[in-house]
Amino acid sequence: MSERMQLEKVVPAAFRAVLGMEKYSSANVEPAVYELVKLRASMVNGCAYCVNMHSHDAMAAGEDPQRLFQVAAWHDSAVFTPKERAALALTDEVTKIADGGVPDEVWAQAREHWSEEEVANLIIAIATINVWNRIQITTQRVPQSYATTPA
User: Fold this and answer.
1) pLDDT tens digits for 24-73?
2) Alpha-carbon distance 36 to 71, whole Å?
3) Coil, helix or strand for 110?
4) Position 4 in a domain
5) Who's near 48: CB < 8 A, 6+ residues apart?
6) What whole-number distance in Å separates Cα of residue 73 and Cα of residue 75?
7) Is 146 contained in some domain?
8) SS3 for 62?
9) DSSP state of 97
10) DSSP 8-state symbol, 30
């Protein structure tokens, strides 16, 4: 598989706009939860580029690799806090939004752990990683040994 294009070179203004969403999200969502959300959405979407990047980013931020290995099967794992589980559940539903929306119980679980503003910021973070996943998958961005470019 070869890369189809590097969007940041073809439409730099659009790329910067998505980077703006990323910058906002990273400043407004709890760092550990933010890394889990990015990794989980990337796994659900099948984005190898982003799974690679966010696994490395999370480890560099101090996340335990054992927890990262279990993100793919978080439903069956005991290593995540109730708050993290709520974030992962919301991530799954927002990422797979066409499957019927976000169920009330998932919404209630998120609101149990976060304020309205915090849930709003979490939704923006989930939406942002989904944008990145769609860009990288569509353009067939190839994972590098590890690059620090945003995605």
Assistant:
1) 999 999 999 999 999 999 999 999 999 999 999 999 999 999 999 999 99
2) 7
3) helix
4) no
5) 143
6) 5
7) no
8) coil
9) G
10) -
Is the overall model pTM greater than 0.85, yes or no?
Answer: yes
d(CA 34, CA 114): 14
Q: For 96-151, how does the pLDDT look when each residue is reduced to its tens digit (9 = 90+)?
A: 999 999 999 999 999 999 999 999 999 999 999 999 999 999 999 888 765 444 54
Which CATH number belongs to the domain containing residue 46 in this structure? 1.20.1290.10
Q: Do residues 64 and 151 make contact, with C-beta atoms less than 8 angstroms apart?
A: no
What residues contact residue 123 under an 8 Å CB cut-off, 6+ apart? Answer: 90, 94
Alpha helices in 29-115 (DSSP H): 31-45, 48-60, 65-69, 82-95, 104-113
Q: Which residue has tokens 């990145």?
A: 132
| Residue 118 maps to a domain | yes
Distance between CA atoms of 14 and 2, rounded to whole angstroms?
A: 22
- Can you tell me whether residue 80 is helix, strand or coil? coil
Residue scoring higher pLDDT (151 or 20): 20
150 is a domain residue: no
Domain that holds residue 20: 11-138
Joined tokens for residue 130? 């989904």
Structural domains counted in the chain:
1
